[in-house]
Amino acid sequence: MRRRTVLVLGGLMVTTGCHSLGDSRLAQRIAALPGWPKNQVPPLAPTTYSQYHHDGWQWGSVSRVLVLPPLNESPYTRANTEFHAALTSELQRLGRFEVVAAPPDDCARLAATVHRDGSFDEATMLELARITRADVVVHAAITQYSPYPRPRMGVVVQVVHPGLAKVVASVDGLWDTTDAGIAEQVRTFYRQRPKPLPPRVRNYQIANDDVFAEELALDSPALFQRWVAHVISETLLGEEAASGVANRQAPAPAPVAGGSTSSACSTCPPAPVAPRRTSIFPLKQ
């Protein structure tokens, strides 16, 4: 049996040429030989996370988004800064609204309050929306993070609408590439070609660095964080993410004291309201 296999390999080398031994076509022919071990590609398993979307609320009314500095509960001190940049970039890449990144905050007090206390101060949210002219405020918290050897990241993201005083969208999940299906999802996201170039072409051609992004996806923390931010951004928008740029509706009038609404002056500061905390959990409202 071994002699027969050697003869078959020799015939393939003579037919295709010894210089193309590393060619993917030759590798496919060798893999098709009887008894040759097959490389099983893991299926693209769906990522495991929970999501929430407020009934009746649409992203079409949003023209400006404020992204606050994330809370970092992991031992990696720069995880919040790096993920903040990745999340704002992916939200901006959607092309649906203007994204405003809040300045860095080492303590991330607002995100910490929302994540740990399960509530937010309505007056603070209204003030942030007034200062930045934002329609919604995005809070994020990094619950777990490990860049090596197989990256893992747990993130909670909540979108607060100050005018409604409610969480209108949220995502809570753990993306762990020790799961072969999740790791294949990361590679697929960065895959630029159906198959790599043969060595005789790769060694004499100046290629774009993006060609090797698939190979570096699980070794580069920046590439992994970008993929997580991409999944979160698409999930926050839900079905609207695939519909392209929708016609934006007029923003809802700002709430005033007594619970009524007024559209007399869109640039005037909101009327003072009594400090009140609202739970971020929809079922408890």
Structure description:
The chain is α/β, with parallel strands linked by helices and 285 residues long. It has 2 domains: 7-39, no CATH class; 42-243, 3-Layer(aba) Sandwich (Rossmann fold), CATH 3.40.50.10610. It is built from 9 helices and 9 strands. The protein has helices at residues 2-16, 24-31, 79-93, 109-117, 122-132, 180-190, 199-202, 213-216, 221-237; strands at residues 49-53, 64-67, 71-72, 98-101, 119-121, 136-146, 152-161, 166-176, 277-279. The strands form 2 sheets. Strands 1, 2, 3, 4, 6, 7 and 8 form a 7-stranded mixed sheet that branches. Strands 5-9 form a two-stranded antiparallel sheet. Strand 7 and strand 8 form a beta hairpin. Helix 3 packs across helix 9. The protein is elongated, with a radius of gyration of 25 Å. The termini are far apart. The model is unreliable at 16-23 and 245-285 (pLDDT under 50).
Topology:
Blueprint: H1 2-16, H2 24-31, E1 49-53, E2 64-67, E3 71-72, H3 79-93, E4 98-101, H4 109-117, E5 119-121, H5 122-132, E6 136-146, E7 152-161, E8 166-176, H6 180-190, H7 199-202, H8 213-216, H9 221-237, E9 277-279
Parallel strand pairs: 2-4, 2-6, 3-6
Antiparallel strand pairs: 1-8, 5-9, 6-7, 7-8
Number of helices: 9
Tell me the CATH topology of the largest domain. Rossmann fold
Number of strands: 9
Tell me the major beta sheet: 7 strands, mixed
- What is the domain tally? 2
Low-confidence stretches: 16-23, 245-285
The run of helices and strands is HHEEEHEHEHEEEHHHHE
- Which bin fits the share of residues in helices? 25-40%
* CATH architecture grouping of the largest domain: 3-Layer(aba) Sandwich
Return the CATH class of the largest domain: Alpha Beta
Chain-averaged pLDDT:
73
Radius of gyration: 25 Å
Gross geometry: elongated
The CATH superfamily of the largest domain is known as: ABC-type transport auxiliary lipoprotein component
Structural class: alpha/beta
Strand share of the residues? 15-25%
Please give the alpha-carbon distance between the first and last residues. 72 Å
